[in-house]
Amino acid sequence: LASREVVKEKTAIEIGPEKFPLGGNRVGVIAGPCAVEDLDQVLKTAEKVKEAGCIGLRGGAFKPRTSPYSFQGLKYEGLEILAKAREETGLAVVTEVVSLDNVEAVAEFADVLQVGARNMQHYPLLEALGKVNKPILLKRGLCSRLDEFLLAAEYIINAGNKQVILCERGIRTYEEYVRNTLPLASIPALNERTHLPIVVDPSHGTGHSYMVPAMCRAAVAAGADGLLVECHLDPEHALSDGAQSITPEGLTEMVKSVTKIAETL
Ligand code: PEP
Ligand code: MN
C-alpha cells in the first residue's frame, strides 16, 4: 500500500490549510519545543515559528521519556495550550500520541498525530490510528530497518488511514559523538520505494543544536519533503532536549538556507 509500484505519485496530505509536500520549492518545516512547558512559552514560540515561515508547530504534551524520573509532559493541559497556539497563529499542531488511551483526545486537538520512535512497532496503536481521520507522522524506530519502517506505515494504511508521513529521526549505532546516527541515504531509498512524504528530524538525529542547520540543508538536498525541528526560546533551560534545540533566530536562518537549496533542485 505504501509502495511506489502501486502508486507512482507522492501522496498529498493536508496539514492545516497547506497541502504537503508543498511544491514550488517550498520546504515544509514543522518546529517547536520538544515538550509543551507552559502557555506563555508555546504562544511566544508559535509566533516565532510562524514568522520563520513554518507550516506546523510541534510540541509534546504526552512525552515518552527514557527515564520515568524525567518531565513527562503536561498531558491534557498541554493539548489545550497547543490548541490556543493554533487559534492565534493558524499553524497546524503536530503532537505525539503515546498510548491507546489517549488516541481520541490527541485526535480531537491535533492536526497531525505523531507516533514516536519508541512506538513505531506498537501495532495496536498503529491500527487505532488507521481509524483516525487525521494525518499521522510516523517516526522511524530506534533500531528499525527501512522495510520494518514501511511495514509499520502499512499497519496504519491497511487499517484505513492513507495519510501517513514518514519521519527519519536517526538510528542507534555504536557512534557516540551524536545522540543518534542520521542516515540521510534513507531519503533517496524511501523516495524510491514509497509514495509517502518524508520529513527528517535532525534534532533527535544528532542531539546537538549546532549540527541541526547543516543536517537540515543536507536532508533537503537529499530529497526530504519537510523537516521536523526542535526550537526553544531558552534552550539552556528547556525541560527536555535543550541541547538539540535551536533558537528562533537559528530557525529563521535555517529556513532561509534550506529554501535556497530547494530552489536549486
Ligand atoms: C520527539 O519528537 O520529541 C520525540 C520523542 O522523538 P523520538 O520519538 O524520535 O525520540
Ligand atoms: Mn525531543
Automatic annotation (TrEMBL):
The DAHP synthetase I/KDSA domain, residue ranges: 24-261
GO biological process: aromatic amino acid family biosynthetic process
Molecular function in Gene Ontology: 3-deoxy-7-phosphoheptulonate synthase activity; aldehyde-lyase activity
Enzyme class: transferase
EC number annotated for this UniProt entry: 2.5.1.54
Keywords of the record: Transferase
Claim: Metal-binding is one of the keywords in the record: no
Keyword hit for Transferase: yes
Name of the protein this chain belongs to: Phospho-2-dehydro-3-deoxyheptonate aldolase
Taxonomic source organism: Sedimentisphaera salicampi
Gene name of this polypeptide: aroF_2
Coverage span on the entire protein: 71 to 335 of 339
